[in-house]
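Let's study today's protein:

:::
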Amino acid sequence: MGWLPGSWWRWLQRQGWIRANAALRRWAGAYTQQLCLLTDELLQAVQRGTTGPTEDGLSGSSEAIDLRWGSPRPVSLWPGNGPNCGQNPWSCITGWAELQQAIVTRWWRASGKEPGTVLITPGATAAWTLFADACLNAGDSVVLFDPCSPLFGWGVRQRGARIHWIPTWIEDGWCRFPRPVLERAMRRAKAVVLAEPVNPTGARLHAEDRGLIAWLAAAHKVLLYVDVTFDAFQAAEKPLPWGTIKGLENHLVAAGSLNWQGRWGGWRLGWITGPALVMRAVALLQQWRSALVPLACQQWANHYLLETIDEEQTLVHRRLEQQRQHAMDVLRTLGLESGDTGQGCFLWVSTASTGLNGRDWAHLLAQHHHVRVLPGELCGPSGRSMVRLCLLQPPALWQEALRRLAAFGATWKNSPTTCTTAPLDLSWRPADQRGSSTSLPQPRDAPSPQISSIS
């Protein structure tokens, strides 16, 4: 059956005949009903017998003696009194048991989730990529909330899936959306993808809206992918985890990252958890692509999770609030307003008052003052006149960025002409073919704005 084209393969899958295949039954075990959640390419690979050594489970028991692999036993960074690394060399690929348990304790304590269903990935981006490759076919319908993380839109489009945008607005710090629109979109959707708190507005979903999304996902057998990467940076009271909602056991896929919390920079470390067969497929793709996290990084992350205290989180929240307040003071002097909730890790800024859309404004800022911000249109259709700024920067770097933003605003306000009289041609061309370029007029004796330091 591996020679069948994708359209016939999907038809057989819908008819339930795929579950009758012996190779797929052996691989899926007791989870044959979840085969419809996976991609055609992955199912055909399983049918051809190219699954590799992860077909018998995600990770072995730490007490088992594994004689299969030609790899040495993992070594602890804390000899003598350190945590047990286990006998299974494969455990450092799908995830170290100690770190899996720490993640379950931190995020899923009330959900009863087993640590073995948590996979360690090279960051939350890798978790989203592996999920999309495992579950999204070309032509599938994916529900996204507008605005959302640009990674979601890029990942869906790259795999040929169709995006169904759900408009949202902020109401008293809550992310609201038209319920009838969501209900219609979920009827034919393969997955609904969101981040909580919402990236970039920082809003949260109300308990009633969370319950509706969960009910629709279970009723229409839709996968629900939730990214909780920035949950730790919300100072407001946090709602119960998604895993505690009844009926989502076979539909919820959650992912997160430890990079920003541990301030590790380039050390990419994230996690993903979900239904057993989906995680088996993700582990298979992780093995194929060698998307592995070194055991030393996993041990350090486990040490951080065990040692982190509430006072550290309080200091981080205070610093983010200071940086946000300083940034808003500067933006208001430029005539710009924020469209976010005043929480979270991002500033969602409107450029409508300048007469430019977000992409053009970001282009001029990068060209003349070497500060790069994300055009809002990459986050969804509603972001055409918006830009996104990330607050998670070292204080000195953020201070310099604000100084340049203020200088850009002073230049803009002292311009003798408006930029709305003619559209800007911001398309890239080689320097020798560019001709006359659009540039901002230089300020006429404009004083440099003073910005107070951030403690």
Remarks:
- The first helix runs from residue 6 to 15.
- DSSP finds 15 helices and 14 strands in the chain.
